Amino acid sequence: MMPNRVPSWRDNLYHHLLFQHCSLCQLPLTASEHFWCHHCLSQFPSSPYCQHCGTTTLTTIEHCGRCLTSPPLWHRLYRLGEYQPPLQQLVHQLKFCGKFWLARPLAQQLAHQITQPAPLLLPVPLHWRRYCGRGFNQSHQLALALGTILNSHVDHHAFQRLRHTQPQQQLTQIQRQHNLHHAFRLRPIILPEHVAIVDDVVTTGATVDQLTRLLIRHGVKQVDIYTLCHTEQSVS
Fold first, then answer.
1. At what angle do helices 103-111 and 87-96 cross, to 10 degrees?
2. Domain range list for the chain
3. Torsion over CA: 193, 199, 202, 208 (sign)
4. pLDDT digits over 160-183, tens only?
5. CATH no., domain 44-230
6. pTM of this prediction?
């Protein structure tokens, strides 16, 4: 099912029936609940984290020790939570099971964390081969939903993926950086001083680091990262 087409009456009926129950525990939703019940939402992994790199910390801080030693190029990272259940399952369903409609409720939860929205959102691009296999770009769907909520513009043509790279899941941080070398291009467009990169999961930060470098070279002053999950494990 392609996410950019006009939904049919069957799609609307399916969504109406589906979202009468919590998609995690399957219990009926109350009038004040949407997509997930309050109990399941409370189970989302939302530990304190470093607002610069996204690493989980004991308390919420602006810069952790790692950032003070080797700071990321971007300005701030906003995340919904850690890559743990039940967010892990939801991101997997969004990314690999074709449930692109999960992008909107997940984006609604992430938007609560974003205090200074960027006027322009740029989703991490997919190579056309991976796009054809998946049918959609999950980062683009997240960016569209966030753009509507935050009143930000979305440009999914700004970045172009030049190479069909090896999947990042089983690679080390150094291997990820090498794997993404010269993998992206930024089209020659006019950009505002404040831009946010949207990705579903940030692990080592290799992908968003490469994209941030391109934006800084293009004259962007502040680059933020919007992501659903952050993890230091070997997952993407």
1. 140
2. 1-41, 44-230
3. negative
4. 988 655 554 555 555 555 555 567
5. 3.40.50
6. 0.84
